[in-house]
Amino acid sequence: MLDKTKPRIGLQLAVLPILLTFIVLGIQLFVFDTFTPHVPLIMGIGIAALVGRWNGTSWKDMEEGMLHVVSVGLPAIGILILVGMLTGVWIASGTVPTLIYFGLELISPQLFLAAAALMCAVVSVSLGTSWGTVGTVGLALMGIGAGFDIPVYWTAGAVVSGAFFGDKVSPLSDTTNLAPAVTGVDLFDHIRNLVPTTLPAMLIAVVIYLVAGFSLVGDESASLARIASINTGLTDQFMLSWWTVLPVALVIGLAVMRMPAMPVLFTGVLLGGLAALVFQGESIKNLFVYAFSGYEIATGVTEIDGLLNRGGIQSMTWVITLLLIALSFGGILESTGSMRAILDAVVKRIRNFGSLQTSAIGSSMVTNVVAGDPYLSIALTGRMFGPAYRGMGYSMLNLSRATEEGGTLVSPLVPWNAGGAVVITSLGLGVYSGSPIDLLYIPLAFACWLSPLIGILYAWTGWFSPLASDEEKRLWKAQGEEVMKFDSWGDESVRFNRDIYRVN
């Protein structure tokens, strides 16, 4: 399963750079009391490079490995840049303030968390990007939650649940397209196979948010006074009407027409700029500033200033640099054979389909944590586990679902992962500025971690775990896919056989 043209690496040596990197990350977080994983990850790259050279991997191969994985992540960087521009311009246009205003007026405080999760789910399915949803509608919902005096981590948990649920099942999402592409299954078959795990997880999450909403909203009169203060400040600073929501409606319409994410987001920037010129009287010069540096306002209302002073390309530089470093770390681990050696060791211990599916989900999760990138977690796991699924005679739809559950949905729960960094930055959580309590959004993003657990339950019970059809097996043969031999499988006596053959 390893590339025979490159030096093999032992498991202990493969784990060493990962272990040492996590020790440095722990020192940075628990000893120095600061969460900036950039330098520890760079040190991890250096450690991995030393291990690679010791094992016989050339620097050229490691450099090419890093550049290759970084190039895979470039579209994500493009989306981050556009999300930063969109946030700054949509605040200036009055779009985000209008969403906050009408949200405070129309949504019941008790129903807010459930409504926030559902709203983000609908928008994310339409846009095909969780990051874009978090940076626009998610930001507005954070403002509404602040008006209802709901803790920010509860609102963030609901936003993340909805946004990444929508990303997982949207045919426009890059990760939703990547998983079936890596595993060789049809896109819409893949989406249909996601429903048995994703939908129950989201329904459970919504029920929890409903119960939490009634328990979290306290003194009604205090909430009403807070809402009145925020809405007065918004109406004093912006011209608010349903017209200023037009950029959101048009962007969702373009996404429904299946336009690619980046052109849709860029169109949103242009529409937001036009709305700022027409409705808010902004100058073109100011719009360029907002798109690059972010929006700035001083209303005297703390909640408004804290929410609306954000956006711009510069606001995403922290995330972009982290993503580049994390991708490089993942790339050098892949080029030295470390990631594949670890996954190969996992595959050896498979005993039945339950352990196979659990291992695939877990490996995708671990890659998310180690490499900091959902794309690598999907691609690497999908490539590595394919022969085992074919050897057991199970449909590759099981593997494509496993990579999404451990990749797409776990990404926002890892603070140094690209997804987690986007959530923390876009929603204005104070994790990087001394408020680690905001990390409570992680356990409160119920839909994101319930879905993998439901998937593991199905694997061990055999529910919603399809065997390969005759047509799928014929396709494996036509494409000469690799298949792993097992001496036996389906019970505890199964023994792993390292032989791999191609279907012919």
Q: Main traits of this protein?
A:
antiporter activity; mainly alpha; 504 residues; 2 strands; two-stranded antiparallel sheet; cell membrane; 71% helix
Task: Summarize this structure briefly.
The chain crosses the membrane at residues 12-32, 38-55, 67-91, 111-134, 199-218, 238-257, 264-281, 287-308, 315-333, 413-432, 439-460. Belongs to the NhaC Na(+)/H(+) (TC 2.A.35) antiporter family. This protein is mostly helical and 504 residues long.
Give structural notes.
- This protein is 71% helix and 2% strand.
- With 504 residues, it is mainly α.
- It has one domain (56-327, 353-467).
- α3 (59-92) packs across α13.
- It is globular.
- Residues 489-504 have low confidence and may be disordered.
- One of its GO terms (molecular function) is antiporter activity.
- Counting structural domains, the number is 1
The biggest beta sheet is recorded as: 2 strands, antiparallel
Q: Could you give the distance between the termini?
A: 18 Å
Counting DSSP E segments of at least 2 residues, the number of strands comes to: 2
Specify the oligomeric state: single chain
**C-alpha-based Rg, rounded:** 23 Å
The proportion of residues forming helix, as a percent range, comes to: over 70%
| Total DSSP helices | 23
Name the shape in a single word: globular
The main sheet orders its strands as 1-2
Low-pLDDT runs = 489-504
- The succession of helices and strands, N to C, reads HHHHHHHHHHHHHHHHHHHHHHHEE
Residue fraction in strands: under 5%
Structural class: mainly alpha
Kindly state the mean pLDDT as a whole number? Answer: 83
